[in-house]
Design goal:
The complex is a heterotrimer. By secondary structure, chain B is mainly alpha-helical. Helix content of chain B is 71%, strand content 0%. The chains are: A mainly alpha, B mainly alpha, C alpha/beta. At the A-C interface, helix 11, helix 12 and helix 15 of A face helix 2 and helix 4 of C. Chain C: This is Peptide ABC transporter ATP-binding protein.
Chain lengths: 337, 292, 324
C-alpha cells in the first residue's frame, strides 16, 4: 500500500509539473501583450511604463528562466502578483478557491447519494420499466447544458417562486464568518454563528443542485454498469445461494466491489463539477475559482491563470490520492499488498 | 458415424440480452429522428425562419405571441429565427471538431499502440495530462490565449477532446496486435504497418464512430459553454450558448434564454440516445473502454 | 421413506439473443437423504443449470417447467421469499471455483456467519463460535486466525474447504456441489472428496455432485446420472453405470478416461463436440456422434427405460445390452 501510494504520488507530481508547463506554454501563445492588456491605453504612448511593468513582473527574462523562477516561487507558496487585482495571487486564491471547493463538495455528496441509489435501482431492475425510465433520466442529465439549467433553476426556484435563496454565498447584509478554512459553513460552525451557517448552507442548495444534474446522470450510468458487471460474478450467486435477503446481497456483496469503479468515476465527476462551476458561478454571483479564472483569462493575467492551473492540478492530485486511499479501504487485497 | 452431414456446432449464443439490434430500440429511433430534424432545420433555415437572424425589429423583449412564437430578444430580434439559424452554427462546427478530434486522437493512439515503448509512454502521459485538466478551464485558457473567436473555441475543444480517442484506439490496437489474425497476417509476410492498416481498420472504425456519436453531444455542450462565457461565437452571431448568455443578462424574460437552451438539450440528447444505443450493441469490453 | 428430492420433467429455457433456448429438457431423478448423487456430462449438457434451477438462481430471464419436490414442497413453484428461506438453510451450494465464489473483499468471518445469523437468528459471538467449529470440521488450521483473514490469503484447496464450511453452516439437508474439485490439484481433490464422504456419513447429508469427470464420480457417487444435450442419457447405481454402461455416450466418456493399466493407447475421445444451446438435434441428441446410431435415432426422441434394477438408459437399440 505504501509503495502503491508512493508511486501514485510520484506520478501526481509529474502531472503537476506537466500541467504548469502546459499552462505556461499557453500563456506564451498569447498574441496580446499583457502589459498592453493591463495598462490599457496608457501603455501605447508610454514605453517606460511598459518597460517598468515588464520588469516588475519579470516579463523581460528568457522564457525558461521565467518558468523556473515561477516553479521556484510556487514551491515557496508564492504564486506571484496578480496583474489585475494587484494583490498576491495566493491571497486571491485563498478567498476564491474555498468558495468553489465548498460548492463542489456539496454537489458531489448530493450526486453520489442520488446517482448511486438510482444506478442501483436501474441495475437491479435491468431492462424493466424503472431501468428504461432511469436511462432516459441519466442521459437527460448528461445532455443538459449546465449554464442553461442554472438559468432555468434560478428563474423558477428563486425569481418566480422564491423557494431558494438567490445569488451570493450569504444573505445580503450578512458578514462572512471569521476566516479559518474559507468554507463558510465550516467557519460559521466553528465560530458558533448558526444564522450564518443556515444562510451559507441555504445558498449552497441551488447552485449545487444545478451542478449535480450532470454528475448524477454520469454516476447513475456508471453505477448501473458497474453493478451489472458485479452481479454477474460467482460470489454474488454464492451470496444468493446462502438465502440472504436481496437487500443484503446488494448492499454488502455487490455495492462494495462496485464502489471501486464508482469512486473512480466520482473523482472524474469532481473535475467536471469544477468545470461546471466555471460556467454557473457567474449566474449565482458565486465568488469562486471559475469567476477568477474567467477574469484572469480575459485580462491575460498570467500569474492569475497559472495560479488557477496550479490549484486545479493540486485539487486533481488530492482527489486522486483520496480515491487511491479509498480503494485500500474498500478492497482488502490492495491494503494487504 | 452414420450421420453424413454433421453441422458444425454454432458458436454459443451470448447470454447477454442487452446486445440487440440498435435499430429496434425506441430511444435510438427518437434520437435519430431528432438528429434528422435538426439537420433539416439547419439546411432549410432561411426557408423556415420567419425573420432574418440579425433583423432588429422595433419591439424589444416581447413575450412569445402568434407573431413571435419564441418572443424577441434585447435587441428586438426574433428568438425563433435565431434559434433556427443557430443550428447552422452549432451542428456543422460540432461535426467538424469531432471529426478533427477523432482523427487526431486516433492517429496518436494508433502510433502509441503500434510503436509502444517510450513513444507510447510519452504520448499517453500527454493524453493523461490533458484528460486530467477540467476541459472547460483548458479550453478557456486556449480560447483566451488565442483570442475570443469561434474558430479558436473550436480549436480549444479539439485540444481537450482528442485524448479519449487516443486511449480507445491505443487499447484496440494493443488488443488486435496480439490477436491471431494479425499474427497470421504477419506469418504470411505482410509488413506490420500494412497489416495494421488493412486488418485493424474495420475493428477500430466501429468503436471510434460510436465514441464520436457520443462526443457530438459533448462537443455541442463545450462549444456552447465557451460561447456562453463570451469566448466563442461573438455577437451578433446567432449561437445558442451566446443566446443563453443574453437570457442570463435578462433573466426575468424567461423566453430569451429558455429556447436556445432547449435546442442545445434536444440536439445533445438526440446524439446521446443514438450513441448510447450503439454502444450497447458493441461488445461489452469495447463498450467499457468507450465509457471511461 | 420418500426421496429427499424428487425432480420430475425439469425443463429450463435460457434467454438468448435468438429467444428462449432449452438448456435442460425433461430431466427426472431423485435423491435420498444421505445419498451422494452424481450428475455427469460435458460442458453445456445442462448440469449446472439443473442445480441453479433448484435454487431459483438461473440467469436473467430464464424460465422453468416441471417439478422439483424437496421435503414435500415444489421448489420451482415456491414464492421467492420462501425459496430464500430454503436456500442456504436446507439446500446449500458449493461452486466450481472457490477463488471466484468467495467474496474477495469480505472477511471469512462475515462470509461464514452472515447467513447463520440470518437463518438461525444467532448472535455475533454465538455465530463466531460455530464458525470456528466449522472451520475445524473442514480442517482449516488455526480457525480463530482464519476468521479475520480474507480469501486471497488462502490456497485454492483451503478456499474450497472454506466454501464447504460456508455451505454447511446452517446444517443443510442437501448440498449441491458443482464441479467441487475441478479447479484444484489432484492431491487436493482427493482431500475434498474424502471430506464430502465424511460429512455425508457424519451428518446424513445428501450431496449432488456435478462434474464432467467420471473419475471423481467413481470416487464418491452412490448413483450417477449421465446427461447429454439437456436430457438424461443414463442413470443408475455407480457400479452398474461405470462397469456396465448401456448408453453409447456413457461408454464413450469411459473410453475417453485414461486407464491406469491401459496406457495412452486406450484413450479414445468421442468424435465431434456436444450440441450448442438451442442446436440440439432431432431424435436422440447424441445420434450425430454415435457409432451405433440407426435410422430411428434421428427421428424418435428416446425416453429412459429400465434396463436393469434401478438402472435406466435412453437408448432403445441397446447396442451394449449384451456387452459388459
Amino acid at each position: 500500500m505504501t509503495r502503491f501510494l508512493a508511486r501514485r504520488l510520484a506520478a501526481a507530481v509529474l502531472l503537476c509539473v506537466g500541467i504548469t508547463l502546459i499552462a505556461f506554454v499557453l500563456t506564451q501563445l498569447v498574441p496580446g501583450d499583457p502589459a498592453a492588456a493591463n495598462l490599457g491605453q496608457r501603455a501605447i504612448g508610454d514605453p517606460e511604463a511598459v518597460a517598468a511593468f515588464r520588469a516588475k513582473y519579470g516579463l523581460d527574462q528568457p522564457l525558461p528562466v521565467q518558468y523556473l523562477t515561477y516553479i521556484g516561487n510556487v514551491l515557496q507558496g508564492n504564486l506571484g502578483m496578480s496583474q489585475q487585482s494587484h494583490r498576491p495571487v495566493a491571497q486571491d486564491l485563498a478567498e476564491y478557491v474555498p468558495a468553489t471547493i465548498e460548492l463542489a463538495i456539496f454537489a458531489i455528496v448530493l450526486s453520489l447519494l442520488v446517482g448511486v441509489a438510482l444506478g442501483v435501482v436501474a441495475a437491479v431492475n435491468r431492462d424493466r420499466w424503472p431501468d428504461q425510465v432511469l436511462r432516459v433520466v441519466s442521459l437527460g442529465g448528461v445532455s443538459m447544458p449546465t449554464f442553461w439549467v442554472a438559468l432555468v433553476a434560478f428563474y423558477l426556484l428563486f425569481f418566480k417562486f422564491g423557494l431558494l435563496p438567490g445569488g451570493g454565498r450569504l444573505d445580503p447584509g450578512m458578514t462572512p464568518p471569521p476566516y479559518a478554512t474559507g468554507f463558510y459553513t465550516v467557519d460559521a460552525a466553528l465560530a458558533g454563528q448558526w444564522d450564518v451557517l443556515a444562510s451559507a448552507a441555504g445558498h449552497l442548495v441551488l447552485p449545487s443542485l444545478v451542478l449535480a444534474v450532470y454528475t448524477v446522470g454520469m454516476l447513475m450510468r456508471f453505477t448501473r454498469a458497474s453493478v451489472l458487471e458485479i452481479l454477474g460474478n460467482d460470489y454474488v450467486r454464492a451470496a444468493r445461494a446462502k438465502g440472504l435477503p436481496e437487500r443484503v446481497v446488494i448492499m454488502r456483496h455487490v455495492l462494495r466491489p462496485a464502489m471501486v469503479a464508482i469512486i473512480t468515476v466520482a473523482g472524474v465527476a469532481f473535475g467536471s463539477l469544477l468545470s461546471g462551476a466555471v460556467l454557473v458561478e457567474n449566474i449565482f454571483s458565486w465568488p469562486g475559482l471559475g469567476q477568477y479564472a474567467y477574469r484572469s483569462a480575459v485580462n491575460l493575467d498570467l500569474p492569475g491563470i497559472m495560479g488557477v492551473s496550479i490549484v486545479v492540478a493540486a485539487v486533481y492530485i488530492l482527489i486522486n490520492l483520496l480515491v487511491d486511499l479509498l480503494y485500500g479501504v474498500i478492497d482488502p487485497r490492495i491494503r494487504l499488498t | 458415424m452414420t450421420s453424413d452431414s454433421t453441422p458444425l456446432p454454432a458458436p454459443r449464443a451470448r447470454r447477454d440480452p442487452a446486445a440487440r439490434s440498435p435499430w429496434r430500440q425506441p430511444l435510438a429511433l427518437v434520437g435519430a429522428a431528432f438528429v434528422v430534424l435538426w439537420v433539416l432545420v439547419a439546411l432549410l433555415a432561411p426557408l423556415l425562419a420567419p425573420y432574418g437572424p440579425l433583423d432588429q425589429l422595433a419591439d424589444k423583449l416581447l413575450e412569445p405571441s402568434a407573431q413571435h412564437w419564441f418572443g424577441t430578444d434585447e435587441l428586438g430580434r426574433d428568438v425563433l429565427s435565431r434559434v433556427i439559424h443557430g443550428a447552422r452554427v452549432s451542428l456543422p462546427l460540432a461535426f467538424l471538431l469531432v471529426a478533427f478530434a477523432a482523427a487526431l486522437g486516433s492517429v496518436v493512439g494508433a502510433v502509441a499502440g503500434f510503436f509502444g515503448g517510450w513513444v507510447d509512454g510519452a504520448l499517453m502521459r500527454l493524453a493523461d495530462l490533458v484528460f486530467a485538466f477540467p476541459g472547460i478551464i483548458l479550453a478557456m485558457a486556449v480560447a483566451a490565449a488565442l483570442g475570443p473567436e469561434l474558430r479558436n473555441a473550436v480549436l480549444a475543444v479539439v485540444v481537450v477532446s482528442w485524448p479519449s480517442y487516443a486511449r480507445l484506439v491505443r487499447g484496440l490496437v494493443l488488443t488486435a496486435r496480439n490477436s491471431e489474425y494479425v499474427m497470421a497476417g504477419r506469418l504470411l509476410g505482410s509488413s506490420s504497418v500494412r497489416t495494421m492498416m488493412v486488418d485493424l481498420r474495420p475493428n477500430i472504425a466501429g468503436p471510434v464512430l460510436v465514441m464520436a456519436a457520443l462526443d457530438v453531444g459533448n462537443a455541442v455542450l463545450l462549444l456552447s459553454g465557451l460561447s456562453f462565457l463570451g469566448l466563442g461565437a461573438q455577437p451578433p452571431t446567432a449561437e445558442w450558448g451566446a443566446m443563453v448568455a443574453a437570457g442570463a443578462a435578462n433573466f426575468d424574460r424567461w423566453w430569451v434564454g429558455l429556447f436556445p437552451g432547449l435546442s442545445i438539450l434536444t440536439v445533445v440528447l438526440a446524439f446521446n440516445f443514438v450513441g448510447d444505443t450503439l454502444r450497447d450493441a458493441l461488445d461489452p469490453r469495447t463498450a467499457r473502454a468507450i465509457r471511461g | 421413506m420418500g426421496a429427499l428430492l424428487e425432480v420430475e420433467d425439469l425443463t429450463v429455457w435460457l434467454a438468448t439473443r435468438g429467444g428462449p433456448r432449452k438448456a435442460v429438457d425433461g430431466l427426472s431423478f431423485q435423491v435420498d437423504a444421505g445419498e451422494i448423487f452424481g450428475i455427469a456430462g460435458e460442458s453445456g449438457s445442462g448440469k449446472t443449470m439443473t442445480a441453479l434451477a433448484l435454487l431459483g438462481l438461473l440467469p436473467h430471464a430464464a424460465k422453468t417447467a416441471g417439478r422439483a419436490v424437496f421435503e414435500g414442497r415444489d421448489l420451482l413453484a415456491m414464492p421467492a421469499r420462501e425459496l430464500r428461506a430454503v436456500r442456504g438453510r436446507k439446500i446449500a451450494m458449493v461452486s466450481q471455483d472457490p477463488s471466484t465464489s468467495l467474496h474477495p473483499m469480505l472477511s471469512i468471518e462475515t462470509q461464514l456467519t452472515e447467513h447463520m445469523r440470518h437463518h438461525l437468528g444467532l448472535g455475533k459471538s454465538e455465530a463466531r463460535g460455530r464458525a470456528v467449529e466449522l472451520l475445524a470440521t473442514v480442517r482449516i488450521p488455526d480457525p480463530e486466525q482464519a476468521l479475520r483473514a480474507h480469501p486471497a490469503q488462502f490456497s485454492g484447496g483451503m478456499r474450497q474447504r472454506i466454501a464447504i464450511a460456508v455451505a454447511l453452516a446452517c446444517e443443510p439437508r442437501l448440498l449441491l456441489a458443482d464441479e467441487p474439485t475441478t479447479a484444484l490439484d489432484v492431491t487436493v481433490q482427493a482431500g475434498i472428496l474424502r471430506l464430502l464422504h465424511r460429512l455425508r456419513r457424519e451428518r446424513d447429508l445428501a450431496v449432488i455432485v456435478i462434474t464432467h469427470d467420471l473419475g471423481v464420480m467413481s470416487a464418491v457417487a452412490d448413483r450417477i446420472c449421465v446427461m447429454y444435450g439437456g436430457r438424461t442419457a443414463e442413470v443408475g447405481p455407480r457400479e452398474d453405470v461405470l462397469t456396465r454402461p448401456r448408453h453409447p455416450y456413457t461408454r464413450g466418456l469411459l473410453d475417453a478416461l485414461p486407464h491406469p493399466e491401459g496406457g495412452a493407447a486406450t484413450l479414445q475421445p468421442i468424435p465431434g463436440s456436444p450440441p450448442a444451446l438451442g442446436a440440439v438435434p432431432e431424435g436422440c441428441p447424441f445420434h450425430p456422434r454415435c457409432g451405433f446410431a440407426v435410422p430411428d435415432c434421428r427421428a424418435v426422441r428416446p425416453e429412459p427405460v429400465l434396463v436393469a434394477s434401478g438402472h435406466l438408459a435412453a437408448c432403445p437399440p441397446d447396442p451394449l445390452g449384451g456387452a459388459a
